[in-house]
Amino acid sequence: xxxxxxxxxxxxxxxxxxxxxxxxxxxxxxxxxxxxxxxxxxxxxxxxxxxxxxxxxxxxxxxxxxxxxxxxxxxxxxxxxxxxxxxxxxxxxxxxxxxxxxxxxxxxxxxxxxxxxxxxxxxxxxxxxxxxxxxxxxxxxxxxxxxxxxxxxxxxxxxxxxxxxxxxxxxxxxxxxxxxxxxxxxxxxxxxxxxxxxxxxxxxxxxxxxxxxxxxxxxxxxxxxxxxxxxxxxxxxxxxxxxxxxxxxxxxxxxxxxxxxxxxxxxxxxxxxxxxxxxxxxxxxxxxxxxxxxxxxxxxxxxxxxxxxxxxxxxxxxxxxxxxxxxxxxxxxxxxxxxxxxxxxxxxxxxxxxxxxxxxxxxxxxxxxxxxxxxxxxxxxxxxxxxxxxxxxxxxxxxxxxxxxxxxxxxxxxxxxxxxxxxxxxxxxxxxxxxxxxxxxxxxxxxxxxxxxxxxxxxxxxxxxxxxxxxxxxxxxxxxxxxxxxxxxxxxxxxxxxxxxxxxxxxxxxxxxxxxxxxxxxxxxxxxxxxxxxxxxxxxxxxxxxxxxxxxxxxxxxxxxxxxxxxxxxxxxxxxxxxxxxxxxxxxx
Length: 589
Prior knowledge:
Layout: E1 12-14, H1 22-32, H2 36-45, H3 49-56, E2 58-60, E3 67-70, H4 80-96, E4 104-108, H5 114-127, E5 132-135, H6 141-150, E6 155-159, E7 168-175, H7 185-191, E8 211-213, H8 215-226, E9 248-250, H9 257-266, E10 273-274, H10 300-308, E11 314-317, E12 324-329, E13 335-337, H11 340-355, E14 364-369, H12 375-383, E15 386-390, H13 394-397, H14 399-403, E16 408-414, E17 418-420, H15 430-447, H16 451-462, E18 464-473, H17 476-488, E19 493-494, E20 497-504, E21 517-521, E22 536-543, E23 549-558, H18 564-583
Parallel strand pairs: 4-5, 4-6, 5-8, 9-10, 9-11, 14-15, 14-16
Antiparallel strand pairs: 1-2, 3-7, 6-7, 11-12, 12-13, 16-17, 18-23, 19-20, 20-21, 21-22, 22-23
Helix pairs in contact: 1-3, 4-5, 4-7, 6-8, 8-9, 9-15, 11-12, 11-15, 12-16
């Protein structure tokens, strides 16, 4: 795959390059739309010019992780016609690149309409002469990414909106190297998304022309490739499954349970206690405030079940099982959800230990996104592991794995709960990460400590890093205006602390090109005995690549803390104050 430097931003591009007006496009769309639900919506709303413009006046683009939008009619929303348009463009690019004979593989999650979209895509690709297979039931995204590698396919298409709001759907596209598409390839595919000739049902092959992959066989192949055995702890001894503490697990009404069950059994781990009403796939996500394990309240039922069973470890996957969330009791007995950076440091520490097997001649490589905390980077430096910081999104995080084929892949992560613990899948994978964390928890339990105590040990070794993230939901115009204002008139102080450095990642001196602004602060003020001149503060601000919200990432570093726990509390209070001051920039006037 060609590599580029520009990070795709999730949005809808004006469809003005097409000759039809939004109203004319609506008429053409209505003629060929196979979905009675979206057809009824068009008939009911076509008299409203604002609605027509919103649905038919722009075209979805590929963002950080594919294209995502609310389900609905038109090229600015996710629907069967839009997936056909995208699949046709992918097929044309696949053929042009000479990969058509390698075929394609298609998967889908449990959201309403995902199966129909996936079968449309598979049948369209097959009709183009591209041998195409489809996983025959709802499956985790890592299984689709694994099948792409296992079959040496030219492309993979996964119909999923991952952790997005319940009314959204989406499409992830993978290429022949096993990773999600990156610029300039994504832009070439977008250029082939032709609205002047909409694909009709006559352009689809028969279902029997598409190879059907039994989901149970796909799970077995994935587990055989992605789950390590046997596994040894830091002392070189095998991890005893009896040391693994009891675990409560929730799939958040997604597709992870069946695969995780097989993965735990293969790894010799005791089965978890399942949150029964969240165990089976249901794309309407009943009873969940939001299908994203990062959101407050989402793990409430899992925590309550853990308390009922006197369990101190909760694991959760997001609805397409490519993310992992973990909660443990803190020292006061309250539940602490490990943030993405804390979980990343723990997994990285564990995985470096697994790779420390005497094969020193083979270099080790890892990666994380630029908005993630830097403690993993410090840990890798201390342990002799080459670490790369990349743009946001796993299409970039896995790039160092491809660029260093002679090295052993140790770990990749982004703070939004995405982890790569094996290169059997060249994308984030919440299932294999859950297996490794369960083993890690067992190794720590054998030492008589838990994850939070291990974090304190690592802070004493490489410095205390406290990170946090905030997000502000707003329409794209408000976010764009706030980012423009930040660039045009950057603040001199934030929460009364002076801004010492500003890096605009759209500027000529940026390490990569991305819609990102990075600020550094000096958290010292005259007369305050609590300030520490060695404390470092970093803020990264960008529009989300998958949802209409601004994302704010914060990190404070205390290089040599005397009292780790007291210093952690001080730095957390500092972060909270800064996050509050920055969030108001994105509130509508």
